[in-house]
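Quick illustration, no need to memorize.
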Amino acid sequence: MEVRKPIWSTSSFVLYVGGLTVLGASAGAIRYLSSQYGDAALVAWTLVPLVVLFAIAHGFRARGESIPAGLFIVADLVVWIIFLAALLEWWGWFPDDDEGSPFAGWHWALWLMLVVAIATAFVDLRQFRFPLLVVFPTVLTWFLVVDVLSGGGDWAAVLTLVIGLVYLAIGTQVDAGPQRPYGFWVHVVSALLIGGALLQWWNSSDADWALVAATGLVFVGIARATGRSSWAVLGIAGFLAATVRFVIEWTDLSGFPFFTGEGGIRGWVPPLVFGIVGLFFVLLGLWARERQEEPAA
């Protein structure tokens, strides 16, 4: 079956807003119920939205409405994960929150839950062919691998970086075939993992933020090479974050009442720096367009 890529339109926008609103309402209802009932009752109550969302998703799928069907199965999958977590909490198997890191400790029950959720995501993906579902196996697999092989810290960042690079290779290969719509979310997760791992290391000194800015330019280069604009969006975000960091430092904020110390404010620095950065982005955009027009995601 051919993968159908959602086309951005007024209808699809409203459908996405409606589907995500239903997801938020379901999560809110479950949170409210968790404050009113015990663990066993919460498991039972969670079954209600789980069954309702499942039925609605398959009802839309039977009518050939791919976008609302996909959105409701995404919401159902989120509730399914919440249901599995509530089940573990009821049985007393859910990991404690006081371990200092989400990757600290031996979480065999959580790993089992993640495997079940990943398998469910692949089943839903096979049935609904909805690209957004790709987020679940990619993110959950990353968490599972990092949790099994590390206890957090730098080793977790190393694994995150490696997994992000693997996803980049997978996304590039998917882009070359008939399942290209799936590749968009693989690239998004890949960029987030790689960027997150690097920010784990580079977040304090001027040299660190210079490396963040340079990585942003590398991301734009990857966007140009792969035709996936999500890399450019995250790359520009990283570059701007580094710019803000340097602008704050160069402006000398000690003149503000809530800062202490001597020295005035160099008010000309922000407009000058952001003006130069803006012109640089224009040139960067022309460079990216000169090579090729990015295909639609």
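Residues 97-193 form one domain.
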